[in-house]
Amino acid sequence: MADTILQKITVAGPEAGTSVSDAKPLIEVAGLSLYYSASRALNAINLQIRPRVVTAFIGPSGCGKSTLLRCFNRMNDLIDHVRIEGAVRIGTHDIYSPSVNVIELRKRVGMVFQKSNPFPKSVHENVAYGLRLHGMRNKSELDAVVEQSLRGAALWDEVKDRLHESALGLSGGQQQRLCIARAIAIKPEIILMDEPASALDPLATARIEDLILDLKKDYTIVIVTHNMQQAARISDFTAFFYLGELIEYDTTRRIFTHPAKKQTEDYVTGRFG
Amino acid sequence: MNSPTATVPAQTRDFRGAGFDFASFLFTGLTGLATWLILAILAVILLNILVNGWEGLSWHFVSTIPKKDFFEPETTGVLPMIVGTTIRVFVMTLFVLPVGVITAIYLSEYAAPLSPITRFIRAAVNNLAGVPSIVFGLFGVGFFINFVGKGLDALLPGAGSNWSHPSLIWASLTLAVMTLPVVIVATEESLRAIPPGLREASLALGATQLETVWKIVLPQALPGIMTGGILAVSRAAGEVAPILFTGVAYYMASLPQKLTDQFMDLGYHVYVLSTQSPNIEKTRPILYATVLVLLLLTFALNFLAILIRARMRKKLRALT
Amino acid sequence: MGDLRNDSARRTAGWMGIQRGHHARPLEWLTERLIFAVSLSTILVVFLIFLFVVREALPIFRGQMDSAAIQKTIPPADLDKLSPKELGQYLGLTGKQLAEMDRETLLALMEVRLEAQNEVPTDIRTDKDARVNTTEWRYLVLPHQWTGYDKAEFIWQPIGQIKKYNLVPLVVGSLKVTLVGLCFAVPLAVAAAIYVSQLVSPRWKEWIKPGIELLSSVPSVVMGTFGLLVLAPVLKKAFGYEVPLNAFVAGIALGLTAIPLVFSIAEDALTSVPRSYIQAALALGASKWQTAWQIVLPAATPGVFAAVVLGFGRTIGETMVVLIASGNASILSWSIFDSARSITATIAAEMAETVAGGHHYRILFMLGSVLFAVTFISNLIGDVVIHRLKGKLEGKRG
């Protein structure tokens, strides 16, 4: 049952004993429902995400985990006919309130996409883009932060001699790490990752996973993944979604060793999904 | 490693931001202004024609053959121009549709995509699309009138110099050559839109390539082919430069009877009224009315073709 | 196409590489050959256009025509002293045409030449320019001080005894109106393309895009009339220049005809920029306009460039607008507020007055050849850029 999974992988995260309700939450989702025109994609989600940990959203495809992720930086605004009920608070501010400037929000909440999307510019310019956007002009400052970010994304050694060559010449795994560097360059508090390694080979995936474990010292990370073993490996907390509902949310250890709901158990043991 | 002192500028904790974003306003404003300006100019053009042309429009106007002095309101009329424009566009369609559709069928259903011949044909289509209309006129004179026409005169007994002067047939053929790319591109697009599964199903039942094309693909593509025809017709109805030396006449007392006759034309008439009127004030209402007739005719031809296309679509849907 | 070497399977490499794999029935085989032949007609047509337009202009290119007012005359009595080639050159006939004519006709033609020369008025006879062959390249391209002028000028004036065929005023005229047109059209069209493809919601886009493309259904003769009747007085009042119909008015009207083309290609290029770039920029906190200006527009540069080049090709070849609205004075002037004459308008207006085979006729065809070459090259450049751009995008997606 769940023991077999425990045997196969080492579960990361907070020790048994910590619960979800400890510590002040950074992201608080309160009664959030989301509608695409008439069809409901998320149903009254209540969730609190703790700071400086890795939280994983898992569930079968179509369950709403990516949709919820995109609510945190309001990328869902780009889709026509989307309606939100309920609230999402970061810190103590409702990010959907009319006084919120979406640009400021996205400076604080960064995103890495499923398919890496570096700009058709040089490596240096890719990372510097966000910095320039938000006002940094001084060349030596830019160079310094670019280097810092590339190091932070474990990419510096591989690109330090080709900073001004096109980013499109990098391998898939390198491009994804570049996108991570680009995102952390503007020092967000939260990094959202939407299946960041699903398009990569196992070796590149492993490097990304190591990077995430390293990044969580400084950033709060929410990661959507369909790979349960990945969730078990790198996340501290896991939320399981099904058909737009949050079924269970707990420490990763508990979700994978003795989940409270049967549905969760069925999913993590591979009985469906 | 040294921790650099540079940091990202302090960020607001409450996401309120700087407030009014001037750059955004300016940029969006300017580009929006450009867009609406273009649309406004279009509206001005159409309204100007409508308002000024409406008064001159009458049943008498469109059904009378004018006297030689068509600058005067009493002796003017545009019937021969309407007839001339319509006939030449019609004859053009007879030529351009078959050739264009067949070429598009070849390109879409038969040609190996990367072979040199295919590339040449596509390059030729692109080039043809870019040739200036006056050069087509020169081509019409140099090739159709002076070469083919002279040849026909020599070959056909008793023709005299029947064929080697400007006439309806040469003007129509010149236009057919000019609108060929339009028909080819529109037809190819409609062929490409047909799902591959349809062809596979037909072939799997043992039909030959030609049978598949004739019985399955072509009928499905008919609406798209009609679109190509519509586009070609609208384009050709308004073109004047290609027919200047290949068939249009300043004045003819009667309607064109045969293919070797010259003809009058709405677009050319607009040009004549604009530039050769002895009294522009008197001619102005006639000019506007002619322009209005030209636009209405183009729209009417478009509309007719759209109707035919809608009928075809309905028939297809009833069958499938 | 068909593989005739392998007799047991006359196949066509068909759509999706479908091999026929069976003997084609003869009627089908024939039909398909016919389809192929008809398709080749497009290539044939382009070739024919080039051939027949250049053919009429060839004697000018080769310097074989002589348009001097005074030319050497050969008395008809000396008919037999001339070789066929010399006779052909004197009378302006090809070898074939010469062979078809009998002696009587040739004598008559020589008489006509003699009489024509005798009819040249005395004041022209003493003109130093009378013996100049004005179709020589020197006079077509370089300035010359003609009788009655006080300095060397570029003159295009094909009427009168001494015909002046300098092309420079026409080329400058064409360039003036084209440049005015593009300077007016390109910023507007590209700005509108950015607005429609990046900054406006899809619902608006559905209406605005067809609206702008509706502009292209206005025939150029109507646009020229609009320029004449509406633009000319309005612009004259607004800018206060002298001449009511000039390169400026014609240029603006031309720009209006170019806008739909430049807009639709540029908008296409902007919309084809992969959504992933846009999403990445937005997720970093860029606003819509920053994304459009800093990411999308640079990525779409080849397409926008192609739009401009194709717009140039279309505009320089436009005839009716210029014919109606530019004033048509074939003077060389760098001011856009002066009347101008374009290459296209010249061909259109003067062709009717030429004699088939005469030098004016051939010079007009030469202008047509030059125009054809210029638009051919610019369209080639534009198409290659678009082709490359599409290839890059498809490569990236795949």
Mean pLDDT of chain B: 84
Q: How many individual helices of chain B?
A: 10
Structural class of chain A: alpha/beta
Q: Shape of chain B from CA axes?
A: globular
Helix content of chain A: 25-40%
**Order of secondary-structure elements of chain B:** HHHHHHHHHH
Q: CATH superfamily name of chain B? A: MetI-like
User: In CATH, what is the homologous superfamily of chain A?
Assistant: P-loop containing nucleotide triphosphate hydrolases
CATH topology (fold) name of chain B:
MetI-like fold
Number of helices of chain A: 11
CATH architecture grouping of chain B: Orthogonal Bundle
Output the radius of gyration of chain B.
Answer: 27 Å
Indicate the radius of gyration of chain A in whole angstroms: 19 Å
* Tally of individual domains of chain A: 1
User: Uncertain runs of chain A with pLDDT below 50, 5 residues or more?
Assistant: 1-9
Structural class of chain B: mainly alpha
Give the end-to-end Cα distance of chain A, rounded to a whole number of Å.
Answer: 16 Å
Report the oligomer: heterotrimer
CATH class of chain B equals Mainly Alpha
Beta-strand content of chain B = under 5%
Cα separation of the termini of chain B: 71 Å
Describe this structure in words.
The complex is a heterotrimer of chains A (273), B (320) and C (398). Chain A has 273 residues and is an alpha/beta fold. Chain A has eleven helices and ten strands. In chain A, strand 7, helix 8 (202-215) and strand 8 form a beta-alpha-beta unit. Chain B has helices at 22-54, 59-63, 79-110, 116-130, 133-155, 168-192, 196-204, 209-238, 266-276, 280-319. By secondary structure, chain B is mostly helical. The N and C termini of chain B lie far apart (71 Å). Chain B contains ten helices and no strands. Chain B has one domain (59-319): Orthogonal Bundle (MetI-like fold), CATH 1.10.3720. Chain C is an all-alpha fold and 398 residues long. Chain C is built from 16 helices and two strands. Chain C has helices spanning 26-61, 84-91, 95-100, 103-118, 122-125, 137-141, 168-199, 202-214, 220-239, 247-271, 275-283, 288-299, 301-316, 320-325, 343-350, 359-397, and strands spanning 156-157, 164-165. Chain C has a two-stranded antiparallel sheet with strand order 1-2. In chain C, a hairpin with a 6-residue loop joins strand 1 and strand 2 (164-165). The model of chain C is unreliable at 1-21 (pLDDT under 50). Chains B and C meet through helix 1, helix 3, helix 4, helix 5 and helix 6 of B and helix 1, helix 7, helix 8, helix 9 and helix 10 of C.
